C-alpha cells in the first residue's frame, strides 16, 4: 500500500505525473487528456474537473487520496452569497457589533415635466357641466350685420387692394359653409340678416348652394339701433332645442349654434332677455359665437366704445362655451379668415377659448400664427 503524500499548499500548482497502465487506467487514458482536461473535447468554454478530482464514470483511479479542496465547482455563486450574510450576522452577534440593516436601493424616479409658466385657470364648477364630446349634427344660424360700417373700404385684401367688410364676410361665410358641409353632410345652415330688425332670410338647409344663392344679393343700410333681444327672439321662434334626461352621458341628436358677424359702434348693448331667451342661452346645446369688426386701431377716440361692446357680447356667455373674436377693420383680411377657420371646430369638441392654442411649436406667439384649415 502506498503512503499518501501530503498535498501541495494552497496557491501552488500540482505537478502532473504520468500514471502507469493499470486495470483502472488502461492505455494511460488520463495521460492522453488535452490541456482543457477532456478526452477529445476541444471546447475550452466547457468547465472540466481538475486532475485528481473525482470524475463520474472512472473507477478507483479517479479517487484522490489528497485532502479535499476548500471549494469545488459544485458550489454556486448564489449559495456563497447566501451563506456570507449569515456568517457575518453570527460574527457580529458574538462580538457585539450591531447587525447592519439592509438598505433598499432607491429606484430612479421618472423625470416630471416642468410645470407650465402660466397655468391655465381651471373652469368653474358651472363650466364643467358639459355634454358628451361627440360630433353630432349642427344647426348653424349665420347672422350677418348689414349696417353701413360693413361697406367701408378699409380691409386689406390678399392682393394689397382695399375692400369692404361685407365682400370679405360673404366670401368667408361661403368658405365656412362649404367646409363644414365636407366635414359632415348632416350639418344644416340658415341665414339671418340684421338691419334695424332681424330678418330670417333662408331656412335650415344642408345644401351650401341654396344658402349661397341668397348671400350675395345683399346691400348695406343706415341702421340707427340694434336690438339684440329681437334677434334672439327670432332665433328662439325658429328652433327647438333638445331635451335630454342625462346631459353628461347621453349625446344630443343635434346642437344649435348662432354665428353673429357684427360691425357697429353704437356703445354698450342694452339687453333685457325674456325668460324664454334666457333659457335658450343657458341651454348646454345652444352656442352664441361672435366675430366683432371694429375701428379701434384707427380711431383712438372710439377705442373705449368698441371695447364696451365686445365686453357686452362676452358677458352673454355664462357657460363659458362660446367663442368671441374681435378684428380691426384697418388690418389685413386674413385675420378675419383665421377667425372663421377657428370656428370650424365642433362646439361640443372644442376646448374653452381661454385654453385653446393654435401654435404648432412651443414659444410661438399664437397671434402671429395663421390658423390652418
TrEMBL record:
User: Which example biological process does GO assign this protein?
Assistant: cell division
UniProt xrefs under Gene3D superfamilies: von Willebrand factor, type A domain (3.40.50.410)
Stretches of Basic and acidic residues bias are at: 11-20
List the biased-composition ranges (Low complexity): 61-77
Whether Cytoplasm counts among this entry's keywords is yes
InterPro entries on file: BABAM1 (IPR026126), vWFA_dom_sf (IPR036465)
Cellular location(s): Cytoplasm; Nucleus
Give the region (Disordered) as residue ranges: 1-77, 99-121
Start-end of Pro residues biased regions? 111-121
Spell out the Polar residues composition-biased ranges.
Answer: 35-45
Q: Major location, coarse class? A: cytoplasm
Keywords assigned by UniProt?
Cell cycle, Cell division, Chromatin regulator, Cytoplasm, DNA damage, DNA repair, Mitosis, Nucleus, Ubl conjugation pathway
Q: Where is it found, in Gene Ontology cellular component terms? A: BRCA1-A complex; BRISC complex; cytoplasm; nuclear body
Which CDD domains does this entry report, sorted A to Z? vWA_BABAM1
Homology family: Belongs to the BABAM1 family.
Record-given protein name? BRISC and BRCA1-A complex member 1
Tell me the organism's taxonomic lineage: Eukaryota, Metazoa, Chordata, Craniata, Vertebrata
Gene responsible for this protein: babam1
Amino acid at each position: 500500500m502506498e503512503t499518501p503524500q501530503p498535498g501541495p499548499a494552497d496557491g501552488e500548482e500540482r505537478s502532473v505525473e504520468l500514471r502507469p497502465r493499470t486495470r483502472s487506467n488502461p492505455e494511460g487514458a488520463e495521460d492522453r487528456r488535452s490541456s482543457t482536461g477532456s478526452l477529445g473535447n476541444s471546447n475550452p468554454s466547457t468547465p472540466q474537473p481538475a486532475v485528481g478530482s473525482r470524475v463520474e464514470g472512472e473507477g478507483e483511479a479517479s479517487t484522490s487520496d489528497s485532502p479535499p479542496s476548500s471549494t469545488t465547482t459544485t458550489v454556486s455563486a448564489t449559495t456563497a452569497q447566501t451563506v456570507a450574510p449569515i456568517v457575518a450576522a453570527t460574527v457580529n452577534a458574538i462580538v457585539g457589533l450591531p447587525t447592519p440593516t439592509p438598505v433598499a436601493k432607491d429606484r430612479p424616479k421618472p423625470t416630471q415635466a416642468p410645470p407650465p409658466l402660466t397655468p391655465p385657470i381651471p373652469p368653474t364648477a358651472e363650466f364643467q357641466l358639459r355634454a358628451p364630446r361627440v360630433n353630432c349634427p349642427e344647426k348653424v344660424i349665420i347672422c350677418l350685420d348689414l349696417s353701413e360700417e360693413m361697406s367701408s373700404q378699409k380691409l386689406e385684401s390678399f392682393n394689397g387692394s382695399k375692400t369692404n367688410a361685407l365682400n370679405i364676410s360673404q366670401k368667408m361665410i361661403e368658405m365656412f359653409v362649404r367646409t363644414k358641409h365636407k366635414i359632415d353632410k348632416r350639418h344644416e345652415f340658415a341665414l339671418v340678416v340684421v338691419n334695424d330688425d332681424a330678418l330670417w332670410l333662408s331656412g335650415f338647409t344642408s345644401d351650401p348652394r341654396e344658402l349661397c344663392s341668397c348671400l350675395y344679393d345683399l346691400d348695406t343700410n343706415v341702421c340707427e339701433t340694434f336690438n339684440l333681444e329681437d334677434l334672439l327672439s327670432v332665433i328662439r321662434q325658429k328652433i327647438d332645442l333638445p331635451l335630454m334626461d342625462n346631459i353628461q352621458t347621453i349625446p344630443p341628436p343635434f346642437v344649435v349654434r348662432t354665428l353673429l358677424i357684427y360691425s357697429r359702434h353704437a356703445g354698450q348693448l342694452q339687453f333685457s332677455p325674456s325668460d324664454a331667451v334666457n333659457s335658450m342661452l343657458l341651454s348646454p346645446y345652444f352656442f352664441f359665437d361672435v366675430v366683432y369688426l371694429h375701428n379701434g386701431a384707427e380711431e383712438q377716440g372710439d377705442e373705449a366704445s368698441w371695447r364696451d361692446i365686445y365686453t357686452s357680447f362676452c358677458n352673454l356667455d355664462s357657460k363659458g362655451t362660446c367663442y368671441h373674436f374681435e378684428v380691426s377693420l384697418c388690418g389685413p383680411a386674413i385675420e378675419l379668415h383665421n377667425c372663421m377657420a377657428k370656428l370650424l371646430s365642433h362646439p361640443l369638441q372644442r376646448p374653452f377659448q381661454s385654453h385653446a392654442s393654435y401654435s404648432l411649436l412651443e414659444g410661438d406667439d399664437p397671434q402671429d400664427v395663421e390658423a390652418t384649415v
